[in-house]
Amino acid sequence: MKIVVCVKQVPDTAEVRINPETNTLIRDGVESIINPYDMHAIEAGLQIREKTGGKVTVLTMGPPQAENALREAISMGVDDAVLLTDRSFAGSDTWATAYALSKAIEHLGADVILCGKQAIDGDTAQVGPEIAEFLDIPHIAYIRKIEDVKEGRIVVQRLMDEGYDLMESSLPVLLTVVRELNVPRMPSLKGKMAAKKAGIKKLTAADIGAEESKLGLRGSPTQVRNIFAPEAKRDRKIIDGTNEEIIDALVKELTGLKCL
Amino acid sequence: MFIKVNKDKCTGCETCLSSCPYDAIIVKDGKADITELCQLCRSCLSVCPEGAIFEVEEEADKKEKAQGSGVWVFAEQRDGELAGVSFELLGAGRRLAEKLGGEVSAVLFGGSAAGAEELIRWGADKVYHCDDGMFGAFNDEPYAGLLAELITQYRPEIVLAGATPIGRSFFPRVAARLKTGLTADCTSLDIDGETKNLLQVRPAFGGNIMATILCPHTRPQMATVRPRVMKRGEYDASRKGEVVKIRADNVKSRTKVIETIREVSEMSVNLQEANIIVSGGRGMGGEKGFQLLFDLAEALGGCVGASRAAVDEGWIPYRHQVGQTGKTVGPKLYIACGISGAVQHLVGMQSSDIIVAINKNPDAPIFSVATYGIVGDLFEILPLLTKKIKEVKGA
Ligand SMILES: Cc1cc2nc3c(=O)[nH]c(=O)nc-3n(C[C@H](O)[C@H](O)[C@H](O)COP(=O)(O)OP(=O)(O)OC[C@H]3O[C@@H](n4cnc5c(N)ncnc54)[C@H](O)[C@@H]3O)c2cc1C
Ligand SMILES: Cc1cc2nc3c(=O)[nH]c(=O)nc-3n(C[C@H](O)[C@H](O)[C@H](O)COP(=O)(O)OP(=O)(O)OC[C@H]3O[C@@H](n4cnc5c(N)ncnc54)[C@H](O)[C@@H]3O)c2cc1C
Ligand code: SF4
Ligand code: SF4
Q1: Per residue in A176-198, pLDDT tens?
Q2: B271-394 falls under which CATH superfamily?
Q3: Residue B19: its chain A contacts at CB < 8 A?
Q4: Quick one: fold of B71-245?
Q5: Looking at chain B, which residue has its C-alpha nearest residue A27?
Q6: To test the ligand 1 pocket, which listed residue (A93, A174, A200, A222) has its Cβ within 8 A of the most ligand atoms?
Q7: Structural contact between residues A202 and A85, judged by C-beta atoms closer than 8 angstroms
Q8: What's the complex ipTM?
Q9: What pLDDT, in 10s, does the model give residues A49-58?
């Protein structure tokens, strides 16, 4: 079984703020991490490999610094790491990102492709399903359990609002995963050593045979016109008194606001 | 496009260095330079006190704008019932169509003829309805296949869906196939007076920033819209419109829904459409504590949410989790009990209309977003509150 896991290096978004004067992101001192959902995708890839045999490759598209994310994945036990990096990818929206990743996956070959449900910076959750469309393979989003996987067929649980769906798909397939799926393993000492030494394979736009006009800013149908800080918050009120008084006051306020 | 520094204006002050998230700017010989690490994020453009940093447009960046007309909304159904977000989308669609001219149409896959009529009363001029049995349960490939086919045939200018598990899963496939842009999870939509482009506002970076996204050249402009933020249109029982029956002859699927399992007990956990959410954190102390929340939620007619800490403790299933790695919610009333208010929780609930926080620690950050703060022990307050609400409601 050939398994490819797409991982994105993201800033720890809890720390990211906006400079109200310039309306630019303040990322000073903000640490880069592997997108948390992608950790679960890596774990899922390793578990499939344990069951069916085969090879797990992690793939990221990004600037050269994204290599750090790949090394972290290697320390968890993946077999191969590929960095897709090229000037021409700069400014990609999800369409252009998914196009480039799909060309790289074609180049690598895959039976199962795993993505996180969404990246915590861009927050779109679009790249996974778009990759599947470009590859003309099926996808299933929000996987919370892999029931069975064997040659040519997979059965999974898909998380929905009111419960879950038991789904079956042919292979190759792309899955996006939620946190409930598993607990990502800690890197082993051996893994950490391997991560230091491992060679990272680099691919460029030319290597994957991508069309220039579909890459980067030029290939992106959407544009970020501007960014700004969310609106500041409302009036606040601390309700004091004995518990009975507090409850009376609260219920009165809520009734007044037609909340009840 | 690329980013350049005007060397004549640049004073070498280094202000721009820290604005670049990718370390792409260097200052050499007293002048700034943009290196090949630049990701075109535009962060540096506005920071230079001399206005020395600028963007250069290339010939190949210029594109013809594609054509289209009318606003379409994808009307989601679950088990044959129309989802509330469909009516909100019709409200938003009408407001956009007023500024653009043109019709508002709804697309309904599965569902009933009565459902199609209902969409007209909520504001659709036309409903494209396919009642083929294959659309009963949600399955990405048939949904994406048929919608892409219809869009190619009728060429709408704007296509909207709810930012629900369904919309967010299959809309990206449609956009990828049609070579057009898709904006995720919008909280506001408007039309640019000059260019007539759709202005799509959405939160990103876990809600810490807002962004306006454009899809200037390709059509349709596609967006998923967060449930419960757009106002419904006027319901008019006498409204007339046209229902166009659609057949799904060329639609294939390589995935199959074997079974749909409803896990929800009596109480719904459809947090994204809830009007009232009562949420608990580590302060609830255990499953027993959560029973207090279920009691209050029942009295209020709301749903129960949770912080990640409570979910990780195993007190309540993941689907109840609110926050960055759970659901983003925007109810009328959110009551946070025993939740400290970590930023990853706040980003998932701070757009709620009214927030009540109950916490014994007066310095808990949750109070910074609360409309009403109660400093106290939730084990004393919750039973009293439930009792009081039952009284008021019973009266
Ligand atoms: C403020 C802001 C708003 C934006 N809004 C939009 C928008 O509405 N529409 C749009 O099309 N673009 C948008 N973009 C651009 C978009 O964020 C980037 O294209 C980004 O590279 C991918 O989107 P995402 O972070 O949302 O990833 P998601 O689609 O949320 O990522 C899902 C999964 O895909 C995989 N993945 C994603 N990116 C990579 C990668 N580079 N390498 C390997 N695997 C990856 C991971 O497994 C990840 O878990 C926006 C950018 C910004 C800065
Ligand atoms: C990448 C990432 C993603 C995350 N995503 C999420 C997410 O989606 N959602 C989320 O919620 N968290 C998320 N977190 C976790 C988040 O950082 C916090 O750890 C978590 O929200 C804390 O939960 P809590 O408020 O329930 O617990 P605590 O922080 O332990 O707070 C418990 C609170 O209960 C109060 N309390 C205790 N006893 C009582 C009592 N008897 N009466 C009244 N008050 C009492 C205490 O004063 C305290 O304020 C994420 C973290 C990371 C790193
Ligand atoms: S901020 Fe402007 S003037 Fe200062 S170094 Fe950068 S480009 Fe030059
Ligand atoms: S556009 Fe962004 S990446 Fe490029 S130099 Fe400016 S800040 Fe750095």
Answers
A1: 999 989 999 999 999 999 999 99
A2: TPP-binding domain (3.40.50.1220)
A3: 22, 24
A4: Rossmann fold (3.40.50)
A5: B21
A6: A93
A7: yes
A8: 0.91
A9: 999 999 999 9
